[in-house]
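Hi V.,

You were right to ask for the full record rather than a summary. Here it is.
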Amino acid sequence: MTFLLFGLGLVALIAGAELLVRGASKLALSFGISPLVVGLTIVAFGTSSPELAVSVQSAWNGKTDMAVANVVGSNIFNVLFILGLSAMITPLLVDKQLIRQEVPIMIGVTLLFAALTLDGGISLTDGVIFVALMIGYTTFLIVQSRRQTKAQHDALDDEYAESIGENTTGWDSTLPVQIVLIVAGLGLLVLGSNLLVEAAIVFARYLGLSEAVIGLTIVAAGTSLPEVAASVTAALRGQRDIAVGNVVGSNTFNILGALGVSAMVAPSALTLPPSMLAFDIPVMTAVAIACLPIFMTGNLIARWEGALFFAYYVAYTLYLIMAAKDHDALGDYAFVMQTIALPLTAITLVIIVVRHLRGRRTGV
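Predicted structure:
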């Protein structure tokens, strides 16, 4: 029965996100809002709506570990698993605007989150700051789009139009239908989040794992399924950097929107377990920072870089499971990762960046 509830919860979340994105996108396009802005805001935010629903529901019920773990785990999953898998399918082009603006914003938001958790939790004030920044960021994107030249506007719009359905005709082109889609989507998100959270708690108790570990793995992967579908589909279709833009936008929204609203509705501050403060949040921060050197080299995420991301997600998940079970090999595994794998990766990234900068100076 628990597996059934968990499955139904995932289906409701995915269906709710799809209805919400379709209704909101069509509504925005009906009012003449650019497909680019819709892609960077409504689509990215809509695919993150399961994380928002689950985290808010968890926070409302006092399950603060689950609320925060869902966001942290989803952000790690989005970069390492989704971008890794997408790049392994086909090398991903990265638009210069993402490198110059969106990725630094994502890194800055992640660093802000890490800094605010140094006192052990996310307070109501922190939540208000996050939501205010989310509103400001969305407004900035809209204003920036309006300032672009028509040529820039049309070129970028073409990249997003197909993925969100630019055609404003059809069965979902009328205002009443669009409102029904939005309302139905929100209803399914609430229903799905309830089922998913309750099933996840049962899993945690049955497997002897903490709610934080379940949130970092099973729930995080489940709520990220819309991002998986959007990014992998974009990669298969060869749509330039939509796979990357969706992940970057979703990660930014997860922190500002999902955690911000969760902190505002929670009965008390969102407290974090020591293990998350000491390990998972630093991993999320390192993953966000690692995006910049990989993205900037040739404006491309190569297949081997995707494989590296994917391998690190597998290694991260194995560590969580081994730590939760207090496995005998945990010490050796952590030693190998800390003294060999991570330093070699850091050295490789530095070499890649140095070569890239030297190539730009010499014009090669």
